[in-house]
Each structure stands twice: as C-alpha cells, then as structure tokens.
C-alpha cells in the first residue's frame, strides 16, 4: 500500500473521535489532487474558450444539460455558487446565442425552466471531445503513484467510506 493511500485511510478513519495521521504524506496527496484538479480545470477552460464559450458559461451549460428535464435559474445559481441575478444574466446570454431556451414550468408558471438546445448539446459535445484529447496528454504525464494519491484524496473529498467496496477497489489498485 502506498504512503498516500495509507495516509488517506488514516485521515478518513476517525476511530475514537480523533484522527490518527501521517500528515506529510496526506498533504502530499492533497497537493497531487489539487494539481490534477487545476490542470483538468485549465484544460476544460481553455477548450471552452477555443469553442467560443467563457468558462462560466460552459459550466452553466454543463449544469443545464446535466439536469434531467432542465434547471431553474435559482438552482443553477446554487450549482455554480453565484448570485441568482448573475445566473439570470448568464442564462440570457446563453439564450441569445441559441444554446439554451427558457420555458415556464408546467406546475408553477412563476418558475422558468432552462434547457439546452440541440446547438447547446452539440457545443458541449465538441468541447468534451477536445477536453478528452487534451486530458489524455495529462494522463501520460502523471505517474501511477501520483494518480493513486490524487484518487485517494478525491475519495476523501467526496466522503467515500474507507471500509466500503469502492475504497477496497482503490486499495486493490494501489496494492496491485
């Protein structure tokens, strides 16, 4: 088991109410995870710009299309961690470019549902294809231990049970 995985398991295990940890290996894992996140975000932001979308507009379009049946502006604001008024302006710009539409809710006419248009979905697909090509280059730059350390910290960030089957699969991959 790698130092990074061991540190993750110890950090995630609250035991008797306090963490037992090897702090430096844990922080090394956090540093790897943050590095990977930042690189992937940069790749995604750069690809969105190449396809004519600002990064936040791209994120909004992802959230809109990713929400089955559409999303309200207030829900979109929450998902993007921005003010509702700013989200509304963002949706208006996306609507002006033909990437989303707004329709009144069937159950509450005061609520507007935002959905992606076919052009919006095509734009997302084109960006995603481009992101995948560039992310493949990143994969080759990362060593196996760096990938496993980052993965173990991501697991901690999302609250993965260190004794559960997914954590077991991560450990098996790390040990193997």
Task: Describe the structure concisely for a colleague.
The protein has a single domain (3-175), classed as Arc Repressor Mutant, subunit A (Orthogonal Bundle). Helices cover 68% and strands 7% of the residues.
Task: Give the tags.
Arc Repressor Mutant, subunit A; elongated; 3 strands; three-stranded antiparallel sheet; mainly alpha; 176 residues
Draw up the topology in text:
Blueprint: H1 3-12, H2 23-50, H3 55-66, E1 71-72, H4 73-80, H5 84-96, E2 100-104, E3 112-116, H6 118-141, H7 144-157, H8 165-175
Antiparallel strand pairs: 1-3, 2-3
Helix pairs in contact: 1-2, 1-7, 2-6, 2-7, 3-5, 4-5, 7-8
Report on the structure:
The protein has one domain: Orthogonal Bundle (Arc Repressor Mutant, subunit A), CATH 1.10.10.10. With about 180 residues, it is mainly alpha-helical. It is built from eight helices and three strands, in the order αααβααββααα. Helix 3 packs across helix 5 (about 85-95). The chain is elongated, with a radius of gyration of 20 Å. Strand 2 (about 100-105) and strand 3 form a beta hairpin. It has a three-stranded antiparallel β-sheet with strand order 1-3-2.
CATH topology: Arc Repressor Mutant, subunit A
CATH class: Mainly Alpha
| Shape category | elongated
Major beta sheet summary: 3 strands, antiparallel
């Amino acid at each position: 088991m790698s130092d990074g995985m061991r540190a993750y398991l110890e950090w995630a295990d609250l035991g008797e109410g306090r963490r037992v940890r090897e702090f430096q290996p844990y922080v090394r894992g956090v540093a790897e995870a943050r590095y990977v996140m930042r690189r992937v975000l940069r790749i995604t932001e750069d690809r969105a710009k190449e396809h004519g979308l600002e990064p936040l507009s791209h994120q909004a379009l992802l959230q809109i299309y990713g929400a089955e049946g559409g999303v309200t502006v207030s829900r979109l604001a929450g998902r993007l961690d921005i003010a509702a008024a700013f989200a509304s302006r963002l949706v208006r710009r996306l609507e002006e470019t033909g990437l989303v539409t707004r329709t009144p809710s069937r159950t509450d006419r005061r609520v507007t549902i935002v959905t992606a248009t076919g052009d919006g979905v095509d734009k997302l697909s084109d960006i995603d294809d481009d992101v995948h090509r560039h992310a493949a280059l990143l994969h080759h730059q990362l060593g196996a231990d760096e990938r496993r350390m980052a993965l173990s910290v991501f697991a901690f960030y999302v609250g993965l049970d260190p004794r559960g089957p997914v954590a077991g699969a991560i450990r098996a991959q790390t040990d193997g």
